[in-house]
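A.,

Following up on our hallway conversation. Structure tokens first:
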């Protein structure tokens, strides 16, 4: 009798354990702020306000009798992220919103994080707001002429519970929550650069309006956000950035000793992308290489250079720059900035448009 029961239990349990959890989830946590985008099958994108997102590729195994799933997968550097997903009501501690899934995340660096998940697509407003980059076109308390003359536009992007952008002078990031047509912004962290006018005035007006809870609506390529104070912000959807056909001047790069250093010497270090090929100046010699892309992932082939000899430290700088280029695995264009990162999330190259 006991053998029969045991055999029956195994027969029932094995299919359940093998079942994958394919629900598209957007997971997040506060204190510290982090997000885990699990909307793409076989992938999980982990992000924090102070680091570039890292993509892990894996799968979930679900145990239906407990209402739990275990997701595991490595990043490009081979280290695993593990997420325990439980069907249990979860509070985000920032609003009254209740979410259907509780999550615990074991990060490769040793952090153990707790948070909530919502089903992606459950909020129609969220699906229209999240993903694209929005460029500010009008704001209460700032002259339209000031926005038009900025060297770099004010922008924001909402993705996986993180709002990131440029406010006219400084970059910012922080958490957000969506409840119907309400956008609830958490505390936004910002860089602390001082800027000339009109950037400073535009930034102050933007920071006053882009705070707290905003009511928003999306109409095609236009976004309108209104605060309880009456302040309004109008945005337009930007076309996705294109790397092909662009040219850049490198301002800093990773020296492979966990430091991002500035460029020295009289000759610029440059990058030009065209039809799967990248070329430019490495600070002493001209170089060329190939690259392949998939989404925000990028891979560079071996670089070939001319044979000119330069004095030190220019030759060492050239070798370190080319090594930094070869180490890059992800890219992002934010306004007039190209930001390349390594698999360990350290910055590889920072460049500005030419």
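Then the amino acids I'd put at each of the 354 positions:
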């Amino acid at each position: 009798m006991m053998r029969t029961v045991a055999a029956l239990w195994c027969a029932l349990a094995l299919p359940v354990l093998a079942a994958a959890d394919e629900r598209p989830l957007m997971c997040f946590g506060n204190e510290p702020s982090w997000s885990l985008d699990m909307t793409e099958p076989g992938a999980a994108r982990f992000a924090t306000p102070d680091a570039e997102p890292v993509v892990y590729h894996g799968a979930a195994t679900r145990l239906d009798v407990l209402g739990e799933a275990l997701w595991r997968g490595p990043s490009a550097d081979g280290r695993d992220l593990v997420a325990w997903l439980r069907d249990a009501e979860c509070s985000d501690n920032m609003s009254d919103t209740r979410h259907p899934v509780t999550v615990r995340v074991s990060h490769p660096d040793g952090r153990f994080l707790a948070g909530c998940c919502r089903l992606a697509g459950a909020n129609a407003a969220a699906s229209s707001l999240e993903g694209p980059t929005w460029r500010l076109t009008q704001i209460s308390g700032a002259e339209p002429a000031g926005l038009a003359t900025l060297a770099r536009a004010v922008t924001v992007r909402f993705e996986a519970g993180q709002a990131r952008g440029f406010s006219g002078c400084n970059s910012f990031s922080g958490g957000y929550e969506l409840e119907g047509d309400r956008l609830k912004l958490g505390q936004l962290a910002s860089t602390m650069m001082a800027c000339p006018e009109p950037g400073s005035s535009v930034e102050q007006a933007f920071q006053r309006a882009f705070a707290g809870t905003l009511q928003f609506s999306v109409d095609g390529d236009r976004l309108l956000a209104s605060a309880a104070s009456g302040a309004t912000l109008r945005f337009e959807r930007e076309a996705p950035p294109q790397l092909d056909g662009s040219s850049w001047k490198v301002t800093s790069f990773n020296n492979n000793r966990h430091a991002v250093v500035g460029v020295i010497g009289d000759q610029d270090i440059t990058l030009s992308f065209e039809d799967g090929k990248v070329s430019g100046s490495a600070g002493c010699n001209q170089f060329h290489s190939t690259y392949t892309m998939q989404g925000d992932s990028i891979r560079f082939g071996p670089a070939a250079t001319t044979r000119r000899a330069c004095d030190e430290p220019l030759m060492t700088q050239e070798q370190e720059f080319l090594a930094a280029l070869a180490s890059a695995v992800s890219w992002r264009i934010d306004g007039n900035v190209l930001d390349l990162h390594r698999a360990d999330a350290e910055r590889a190259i920072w460049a500005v448009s030419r």
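The radius of gyration is 23 Å. Curious whether your intuition agrees with the design.

B.
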